[in-house]
Amino acid sequence: MTSLASAAPAPAERPAQSDSRVLSVQETMWGYILGEEAGRFDQDRLLELGCRFLGLILILCAYGQWFLPGSVFVGDVLAMKAALSFFFGASGAAIYWFASRGLMLEVHVDLSRRELRVVNRNSRDQVRLHSRVPMRNVESAFMRRDNGRGARTHLMLRLRDKSQVMHVASGSEAEMHHLHRRLSADIKPAKERLEDRLARQATFMTSRLAS
């Protein structure tokens, strides 16, 4: 996994970021994955494990009450126990399912299929598809900066025919500039990329002839 901090030129004085996460790019056969490198006790992983543990506790509470000594199985008590079992069981299963999906988001830039995929990754490195955006639906890429000392810069995509933007990655301003150039070039249609290449070649040839 390659960190953009080493791929982009570092500024003379880099302010401390508000957390320990580092933007990373993992190269693949079909493109690359934008994610965040984090420590072993990353907040998202801890939250996921906590939610899974809470879900299991609720499920145990839902069915464990039926095995307690002196349990009553008649009348209103039976109905109340059945209602509690359903509530605790459904809540626990929902929380466990939510946590198992993963709380860490990644963006997969697929240059073969010409699409962007937002996926959830859990602590067991399992991924689930969250959304898919064809590159032809991307209108432009831009950066948004937070206020304050040590604030992070965010790379966003503006989608066509939608009044919304898509968050891609966050990091230092130098990292986002580097990623902005790469992603902007990658999401261009093949026709525009060819036209840009021909235009650069024409400019180069003109300068050579002029000299």
Structural summary, described in words:
By secondary structure, this protein is of the alpha+beta class. The chain folds into 2 domains: 2-10 and 19-39 and 102-210, PH-domain like (Roll); 45-101. It contains 5 helices and 9 strands, in the order βαββααββββββαα. The strands form 2 sheets. A 6-stranded antiparallel beta sheet has the order 1-2-3-4-5-6. Strands 7-8-9 form a 3-stranded antiparallel beta sheet, covered by helices on one side. Strand 7 (138-145) and strand 8 (153-159) form a beta hairpin. Helix 2 (43-64) packs antiparallel against helix 3.
Features of the shown structure:
single chain, 211 residues, alpha+beta, PH-domain like, 2 domains, 3-stranded antiparallel sheet, 5 helices, disordered N terminus
Major β-sheet strand ordering: 1-2-3-4-5-6
SS-derived structural category: alpha+beta
Tell me the radius of gyration.
25 Å
CATH classification class of the largest domain: Mainly Beta
Mean pLDDT: 76
Number of H- or I-type helical stretches: 5
Quick structural summary:
With 211 residues, this protein is α+β, with helices and mostly antiparallel strands. The chain has five helices and nine strands. The strands form two sheets. A six-stranded antiparallel beta sheet has the order 1-2-3-4-5-6. A three-stranded antiparallel beta sheet has the order 7-8-9, covered by helices on one side.
SSE layout and pairings?
Layout lengths: L1 E2 H4 L14 E6 L3 E7 L5 H22 L10 H27 L2 E7 L4 E7 L5 E8 L3 E8 L7 E7 L5 E7 L1 H14 L3 H21 L1
Antiparallel strand pairs: 1-2, 2-3, 3-4, 4-5, 5-6, 7-8, 8-9
